[in-house]
Design brief:
By secondary structure, the protein is of the alpha/beta class. 50% of the residues lie in helices and 12% in strands. A 5-stranded mixed beta sheet has the order 3-2-1-4-5. Helix 1 packs parallel to helix 3, helix 5 packs across helix 8 and helix 6 crosses helix 7. It is flat and about 85 Å long.
Length: 260
């Protein structure tokens, strides 16, 4: 009789829920074998579900492939809402029908998986562009315009240049055909790829700023207005990376100016 370990190894090679090997192994009444069968079936089902999810997230891309367009850039930004730090945009061209396991809107990917999926996108992408607009630019032109500037710059870095853009909730003044998709990072794999590239890039920038400007918890809050961040502002004041056009920074700066 085969050992449980041997059966486990044989089960690992099965990729189809309808495999006759399952029926064969199910005749073995040992509870250890039954547990391994159940475990393998769950793993196969999870693979099927993930594949279907990724397939659904390629629907916009597939419509374009059908029109003979293959160089599609997903474009997204991270950092529109924080009180400090830059806005970061990324543009990513993935190979046709490319599926990256676990790739999703970066807000839905567990933090511990960010680096792994970031690396997978970097490994598979045909081209990646990244642009960083600092808080001074944001304060000069406003966050919406700074986001557009960042997106345009990220796209300009792509080589080859894309034939079509899939953009998360934005239209850009560029001579490239484009589709603006609301919640695009959850609907398109190309945009999701740009989302994770922008997110990990910005998180690293903010972790570095946490070393430079301690006391605001930047490595944890990425510049968003959390209780610890607001506490830091109260204790230590405004840093050179804070957005002075955003409240409550604007009020803090104007009050400090009055006092002087």
């Amino acid at each position: 009789m085969a050992t449980i370990k041997e059966i486990k190894e044989a089960l690992a090679k099965i990729t189809d829920l309808e495999s006759p090997l399952f029926q064969e192994f199910e005749k073995d009444s040992r509870s250890g074998v039954q547990k391994e069968i159940e475990k393998r079936k769950k793993a196969i089902q999870a693979e099927i579900d993930e594949n279907l999810r990724l397939e659904a997230m390629l629907s916009y891309e597939k419509e374009l492939y059908a029109q003979g367009i293959s160089l599609i850039a997903g474009v997204d930004e991270v950092g529109r809402g924080p009180l400090a730090g830059p806005v970061v945009a990324a543009a990513v061209i993935l190979p046709q029908n490319c599926k990256i396991k676990g790739l999703n809107d970066s807000k839905k990917i567990p933090k511990r998986k960010h680096e792994e999926i970031f690396q997978a996108v970097k490994d598979k992408a045909l081209a990646i562009g990244i642009s960083i607009m600092n808080n001074q630019v944001i304060d000069q032109v406003n966050i919406y315009e700074a986001t557009k500037l960042a997106m345009k710059e990220a796209i300009s870095q792509l080589e080859p240049q894309p034939e079509h853009l899939l953009i998360d909730a934005m239209k850009l003044d560029l001579p490239i055909t484009q589709t603006s998709i609301i919640k695009g990072d959850a609907s398109s794999l190309s945009i999701a790829a740009a989302s994770i590239i922008a997110k990990v890039t910005r998180d690293k920038i903010m972790a570095n700023y946490d070393q430079k400007f301690p006391g605001y918890d930047f490595s944890q809050n990425a510049g968003y207005g959390t209780a610890k961040h607001l506490e830091g502002l109260e204790k230590h004041g405004v840093t050179p990376i804070h957005r002075t056009s955003f409240e409550p920074i604007k009020t803090i700066v104007s009050e400090a100016e009055k006092d002087n």
